[in-house]
Specification:
By secondary structure, the protein is of the alpha+beta class. The chain has 5 helices and 5 strands; from the N terminus they run ββααβαααββ. It has a single domain, classed as 2-Layer Sandwich (60s Ribosomal Protein L30, Chain: A), CATH 3.30.1330.70.
Length: about 140
């Protein structure tokens, strides 16, 4: 996996005084098929890389973890190929949610804490990326 940069685009407080974080990672998550069929060593390396990107991107900007949060993944692909949302929720995005838990951004990735994560697909041929929006609820 290539090394990519993660950055916090916005850290803002919305009108209800809830913290809202938007991070951008210049990487598109793996589908379930690609993630499950990886060699275990490459899968662990992928998990460590994503964990590092999340840590580098937002850990220093959050004082306490969210006990309840709404999470939205906006994934920008390079091509307009047909894709299945469930393949991403059951595959590469699991690693991304685990990284948020490991670095105490959210308390847990269970349904009680985050509900159903929302995944939106977009096309951006020039800049494929993943935007993660975390909002306290």
């Amino acid at each position: 996996m290539k090394k990519v940069k993660a950055k916090v685009l916005k850290y803002m407080i919305n009108e209800r005084r809830r913290a809202k974080i938007k991070i951008i990672i210049n990487e598109v998550p793996l589908s379930k098929n690609k993630y499950v069929n990886m060699h275990w060593a490459k899968r662990r390396s992928y998990k460590n890389d994503i964990s590092w990107l999340v840590m580098r991107g937002i850990v220093k900007r959050i004082k306490s973890k969210y006990k309840k949060a709404k999470i939205v993944f906006d994934i920008y692909f390079k091509t307009n190929r047909k894709r299945d949302v469930q393949n991403y929720l059951g595959g590469g995005l699991i690693v991304w949610l685990d990284a948020l838990v490991d670095h105490n951004i959210i308390a847990d990735d269970s349904y009680i804490v985050i509900g159903q994560p929302i995944v939106n697909f977009h096309i951006d041929r020039a800049n494929p990326r993943t935007e993660i929006i975390i909002e306290g609820r």
